[in-house]
Amino acid sequence: MLEVRGLGIRFGGLHAVQNVSTALTPGHITAIIGPNGAGKSTFFNLISGFYQPTSGSIHFLGEDITRLRTHEVVGRGIARTFQTTTIYKELSVLDNAMIGHRVRTRAGVLDALLRTGRERRDEAASRAEALRALKRVGLSDRAHLPAGALTQEGQKRVGIAMALASDPKLLLLDEPAAGMNPEETVNLMGLIRELVGGGLTVALVEHKMSLVMGLADEIVVLHHGQKIAQGAPADISRDPAVVEAYLGSHAHGGQMGMAGPAQEGGTPRA
Questions:
Q1: Do 111 and 218 belong to one domain?
Q2: pTM (2 d.p.)
Q3: Mean pLDDT across 62-75
């Protein structure tokens, strides 16, 4: 589905991402992990068009999207969320989700000012897709509440609904469980599984190893901007290079996800 080849970006003399090659399997959940400063969010920014790479290429569904701008990438079927909840708390849950669909509409500023037929059709389409997205994340009964009135978990779901409203094929989740308690994290895992069961492919950056090990089909490990390992969770948890890079001397028996720092609540920040 998605293939990156030799991907890299420099900021001045610093290689934030360097020579990363990987591929995401359709219908799978791929976790991107690594210690602080490993280049995980930068990697997502490259895929989603927020940054332009200084080397390498990105192919999505057979098309080279390396130089596309962000809205063009979204239009191709890649949507993402961010580490911090980027919702409009004063707007309703429905209005937030409708914003996510606007990339699929054609009406411009003049259409909006004159309330043209195209604007009305686009608005109706955005409303329908937003309601569909809210149903998928379990918020259809809260559509008319202010988004800021929801719990942290609810606001995270609004952010996911905004991404879903753009009708993506690939969903990038940047630390989706940040700020959530254990119960909310379990609920989020269930939602992600449902979305993948409904046909989505998901890649996520996450530092909660309980979530990663319990959810991911495959894990990609970055360290100092480079890929040092890729494989199934069971294999990654035993990889000496990964344990050394990600957990260091705090690893218990070289097993990621075991008792201690590798578990939720004591996990090193990624």
A1: no
A2: 0.86
A3: 95
